[in-house]
């Protein structure tokens, strides 16, 4: 295991035993055993909640390995089967990731995760690729009624508004307007946004401690106005798709409101649906 203090694996038997002990101490420092029968909630859900709290608080950081299943189960006072049920749920929700032969890690927002979980536009022939993002505007504003309602704020509260144009196969296809609560993103500047190393969700996670876990979306048909016509190079009055997304972090707390307007002349919005486990 890597990423947790005092839990580095080495080759000789004595060091391995030391490593097991280190993982047990790490797990015990973060988690406390459950009291049997203390809650009506199924035990695996209690374990899942405890893991989520540790991730949200930063005790288990993005990219870090969790202690071993044995160490976690012992610290929480549950069976390995119960622990695995909880971690299976978190893997399915893309909050944890298993790496063969290496262990279970707190998932990091990277380009692959963005494309798999949060980007759903592809060319009509099925070609799918990451967009090239052009930042058009970055400004501090007083939040308007629609994004305020989505973010649980009052109209007029401080916010950050970002306008992006997304290009696919060299052509402008999407206009994104993002609204962020200023209180959650203190210190975010246009320079930091432009110079980010990966996706914007990676920036939220690594620099502001905000992990987007899922999103709620509403889509409807619309027509392009003159402004959008200039931005995307479509005819005024052409059909477009408008997707309103509220990005959520732990506890379904809203952290970003995004309006994406998509030119669907050659591109489609494709979302893989799956039944909950």
Write the layout of secondary structure elements.
Blueprint: H1 13-30, H2 43-57, H3 69-76, H4 80-92, E1 96-99, E2 103-106, H5 111-118, E3 121-123, E4 132-142, H6 145-151, E5 158-168, E6 171-181, H7 190-194, H8 200-208, E7 214-223, H9 226-232, E8 239-249, E9 253-263, E10 267-269
Antiparallel strand pairs: 1-2, 3-10, 4-5, 5-6, 6-9, 7-8, 8-9
Describe this structure as you would to a colleague:
This protein has 277 residues and is an alpha+beta fold. Helix content is 32%, strand content 29%. The chain has helices at residues 13-30, 43-57, 69-76, 80-92, 111-118, 145-151, 190-194, 200-208, 226-232; strands spanning 96-99, 103-106, 121-123, 132-142, 158-168, 171-181, 214-223, 239-249, 253-263, 267-269. It has a 6-stranded antiparallel sheet. The longest helix has 18 residues, at 13-30. It is elongated.
- Helical residues, percent: 25-40%
Compute the separation of the termini in Å. Answer: 28 Å
Order of helices and strands: HHHHEEHEEHEEHHEHEEE
- Please tally the helical runs, counting DSSP H or I stretches of 4 or more residues: 9
Strand order of the largest sheet: 4-5-6-9-8-7
Category from helices, strands and their pairing:
alpha+beta
Radius of gyration, CA atoms, in whole angstroms? 22 Å
The main pleated sheet reads as:
6 strands, antiparallel
Mean pLDDT: 87
Report a brief summary of the structure:
The chain has 277 residues and is of the alpha+beta class. The chain contains 9 helices and 10 strands.
Q: What structural keywords apply?
A:
single chain, alpha+beta, two-stranded antiparallel sheet, 9 helices, 29% strand, elongated
């Amino acid at each position: 295991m890597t990423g947790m203090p005092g839990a580095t694996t080495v080759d000789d038997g004595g060091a391995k035993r030391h490593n097991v002990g280190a993982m047990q101490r790490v797990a015990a420092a973060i988690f406390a055993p459950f009291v049997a029968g203390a809650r009506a909630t199924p035990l695996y859900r209690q374990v899942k909640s405890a893991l989520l709290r540790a991730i949200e608080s930063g005790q288990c950081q993005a990219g870090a390995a969790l202690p071993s299943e044995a160490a976690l189960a012992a610290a929480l006072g549950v069976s390995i089967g119960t622990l695995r049920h909880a971690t299976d749920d978190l893997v399915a929700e893309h909050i944890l990731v298993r790496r063969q032969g290496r262990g279970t890690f707190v998932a990091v927002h990277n380009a692959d995760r963005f494309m798999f979980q949060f980007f759903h536009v592809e060319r009509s022939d099925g070609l799918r690729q990451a967009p090239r993002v052009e930042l058009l505007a970055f400004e501090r504003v007083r939040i308007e009624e629609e994004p305020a309602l989505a973010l649980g704020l009052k109209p007029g509260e401080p916010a950050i508004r970002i306008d992006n144009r997304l290009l696919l196969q060299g052509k402008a296809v999407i206009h994104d307007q993002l609204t962020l609560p200023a209180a959650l993103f203190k210190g975010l500047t246009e320079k930091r946004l432009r110079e980010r190393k990966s996706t914007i969700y990676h920036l939220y996670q690594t620099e502001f401690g905000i992990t987007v876990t899922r999103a709620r979306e509403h889509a409807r048909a619309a027509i392009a106005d003159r402004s959008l016509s200039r931005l995307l190079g479509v005819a005024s009055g052409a059909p477009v798709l408008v997707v309103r997304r509220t990005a959520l972090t732990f506890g379904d707390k809203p952290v970003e409101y995004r309006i994406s307007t998509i030119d669907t002349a050659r591109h489609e919005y494709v979302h893989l649906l799956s039944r909950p486990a």
